[in-house]
Structure formats: C-alpha cells, structure tokens
Amino acid sequence: ELEKLGLRDDVDLHVYEVPVEYQTVQRLIPALWKKHSPQLVVHVGVSGMATTVTLEKCGHNVGYKGLDNCRFCPGSQCCVEGGPECIDSIIDMDTVCKRVSALGLDVAVTISKDAGRYLCDFTYYTSLYQSRGRSAFVHVPPLGKPYSAEQLGRALQAIIEEMLDLLEHSEDKISCQHEH
C-alpha cells in the first residue's frame, strides 16, 4: 500500500519483503544496506497481538528460541555474538508518535520497547547493528483487525515522513555544531 501512496518527491522508496528466516535476515539486511546506503531503513512487521500501529524503540540481541519458517533457530540464540544487549534507534519514537497522533489519522499509534524476540526483533537488531541505529521498526496489526490496508498505508506514510523530518533536523544540528 505504501508503494502505491509513495513518499515525498525527494525520497527514493525501496520496498522489499523479508522472509521469516533467521539466516536470510543475516544475509539480506547487510546486503540491502550495502546496496542502497540509505538514510534510513524502516522495517514493518505484522503482529497478531497488535491492536495499534506500534513504534519499536530498540532491538534485542539475545533470547531467540523460536523456530523460523525453515524450522531453524540460531544455536547461539542471538543476532550478533558479542554485540550489545540492546540497540536503540536514533529516531525519537516518542516524538514521532506524538506528531503522527496529532495529525488526526484514524489509526492509533503507540510505543514499545520489546519487538518480541522473534524475526521482527531479530531483523530490527540486525539492521540497527548494521546502521549504527539508523533503523526503525513498526509493528502493524493484521489487515482488518482493525485497520484496512489503506489506513495502514497512510499511517506508515505519515510515520516515515515524520522520521525523515526528525532525522534531517537532527543532522542539521549536528553539522551546525561541527562548523563552529
């Protein structure tokens, strides 16, 4: 849906479907970062437990015990051996949540600090590690429970545009500080 809606004119949007497979995530995420050198990567995952659009603040390195779609689980039960326990996104999710909620879309947006220790969290941590925090993860409820594809697409569009806005303004401040 987001591909149909698009983002601002100055944004190149690349959409990929990431399989629910640990080993594919470990190969694909670094390859996509290398291929595109993006300003930001936003992962979107469906959660059967979600009733809101949920902005995840951080990814976790350990505790992966569930088998993936290939019936595989990392022996170490972690994403990156020796990596930090938790990596926070550099995006201020509280601000994104407040701004998007203020837009009056017919979608509730909330914050979480636990993406669930399955492939969503595994993907998020892998991307955060690869990007030094320049990633985001958004959990969405299954279609129709309660939101339509169009509602979710509009919410994701607003969320990503707010994230890009925050990122651009934080980088303006950083470059200003380096000039003095």
Automatic annotation (TrEMBL):
<dbReference type="InterPro" id="IPR016125">
    <property type="entry name" value="Peptidase_C15-like"/>
</dbReference>
<dbReference type="InterPro" id="IPR033693">
    <property type="entry name" value="PGPEP1_Glu_AS"/>
</dbReference>
<dbReference type="InterPro" id="IPR033694">
    <property type="entry name" value="PGPEP1_Cys_AS"/>
</dbReference>
<comment type="function">
    <text>Removes 5-oxoproline from various penultimate amino acid residues except L-proline.</text>
</comment>
<keyword id="KW-0378">Hydrolase</keyword>
<comment type="similarity">
    <text>Belongs to the peptidase C15 family.</text>
</comment>
<feature type="active site">
    <location>
        <position position="120"/>
    </location>
</feature>
<dbReference type="GO" id="GO:0016920">
    <property type="term" value="F:pyroglutamyl-peptidase activity"/>
</dbReference>
<dbReference type="InterPro" id="IPR036440">
    <property type="entry name" value="Peptidase_C15-like_sf"/>
</dbReference>
<dbReference type="InterPro" id="IPR000816">
    <property type="entry name" value="Peptidase_C15"/>
</dbReference>
<keyword id="KW-0645">Protease</keyword>
<protein>
    <recommendedName>
        <fullName>Pyroglutamyl-peptidase I</fullName>
        <ecNumber>3.4.19.3</ecNumber>
    </recommendedName>
</protein>
<dbReference type="Pfam" id="PF01470">
    <property type="entry name" value="Peptidase_C15"/>
</dbReference>
<comment type="subunit">
    <text>Monomer.</text>
</comment>
<dbReference type="GO" id="GO:0005829">
    <property type="term" value="C:cytosol"/>
</dbReference>
<keyword id="KW-0963">Cytoplasm</keyword>
<dbReference type="GO" id="GO:0006508">
    <property type="term" value="P:proteolysis"/>
</dbReference>
<feature type="active site">
    <location>
        <position position="56"/>
    </location>
</feature>
<keyword id="KW-0788">Thiol protease</keyword>
